[in-house]
Specification:
With 296 residues, the chain is an alpha/beta fold. Helices cover 41% and strands 25% of the residues. Helix 5 links the parallel strand 3 and strand 4. The longest helix has 25 residues. The protein is flat, with a radius of gyration of 22 Å.
């Protein structure tokens, strides 16, 4: 019998390409991943990996098994969801992943509603960059998360997940004066930490108008970013949720760039009562947001 946990590792290897990447995403050691995949080979009775030096490649049988793993994992999740609908009160844990501005503006009211309506549900929140959320969901470290893409940073296709539209925001140029983006080719810039979506969006949005930004400061919290702009330390790109409170001395210029947020959860779990309750609470909280379009 094929072990489900090992099938998940094979699915991740098909997605990520290297054992090291699988280990990093799922908080394993590379040695542990290799051992589990070797055990899966023994269970399957056919070679699954072709080893060339330090790299591995999936055999045709492994590629096909990884495709089956997608279906198997989704069906198991769906079966669990159907069993959960027979229970009365929601119990157990609900693990939610969200980016910082959403935690403050959207997730906090949703948590209040979930705690009130489902007092026996244990709520666990992880603040993380959306780029890391899909791997955490597939690794069963989260149950539901907010994932994002920008116009200049489209989301890569993700296997094993279902998503639904949640929020679309305008991105603003935050600067001491309301000037066009192209006027800031020689300005100092403030952006997220390298590797984050916000950092990549800033670079690509500037490149789209003909220059590469000189990034002097790195900050992931938009309150900190706006404070740096107000202190004359540079200019930045800020989405609507990050611009609810604008310091004195900061002008916002709306850009054509948009940030789109989606709710994501493992395939087959969307109808699970706990996930359904989280989806409903998050959508209700989103609709209660005040108008977030600042006046430049």
């Amino acid at each position: 019998m094929l072990e489900v946990r090992r099938l998940r590792l094979l699915r991740e290897l098909a997605q990520r390409g290297t054992i090291a990447a699988v280990a990093e995403a799922l908080a394993y050691t590379p040695s542990a991943v290799s051992q589990q995949l070797a055990a899966l080979e023994r269970e399957a009775g056919v070679p699954l990996l072709e080893r060339t030096g330090r790299s591995v490649r999936l055999t045709p049988a492994a590629t096909r098994l990884a495709e089956h793993a997608e279906t198997i994992l989704a069906v198991l999740e769906q079966a669990s969801a159907e069993l959960a609908t027979t229970r009365g009160e929601l119990t157990g844990s609900l693990r939610i992943g969200a980016f910082p501005t959403a935690v403050r503006t959207i997730l906090s009211p949703a948590l209040v509603a979930l705690s009130r309506d489902h007092p026996r549900l244990e709520l666990l929140v992880s603040e993380l960059d959306p780029v890391n959320a899909p791997a955490a969901l597939r690794a069963d470290a989260l149950d539901i998360a907010l994932v994002q893409e920008y116009d200049y940073v489209p989301a890569a296709p993700e296997t094993g997940l279902d998503t639904e539209p949640f929020l679309e925001e305008t991105v603003y140029l935050a600067a001491p004066a309301p000037e066009p983006l192209a006027e800031h080719r020689d300005s100092a810039w403030i952006a997220g930490m390298p590797g984050t979506l916000c950092h990549l969006m800033t670079v690509r949005a500037c490149e789209a108008v003909g220059f590469t930004p000189h990034i002097r400061h790195h900050a992931d919290d938009f309150g900190t970013v706006l404070a740096l702009v107000a202190a004359g330390q540079g200019v930045a790109l800020v989405p609507e949720l990050g611009a609810l409170q604008i310091p004195s001395g900061v002008a916002l210029v709306p850009l054509a760039t948009r940030r789109r947020t989606r709710l994501a959860y493992r395939r087959g779990t969307g109808s699970h009562p706990t996930i359904a309750a989280a989806r409903a609470a998050l959508h209700t909280s989103r609709t209660a947001l005040p108008s977030t379009a600042p006046t430049p």
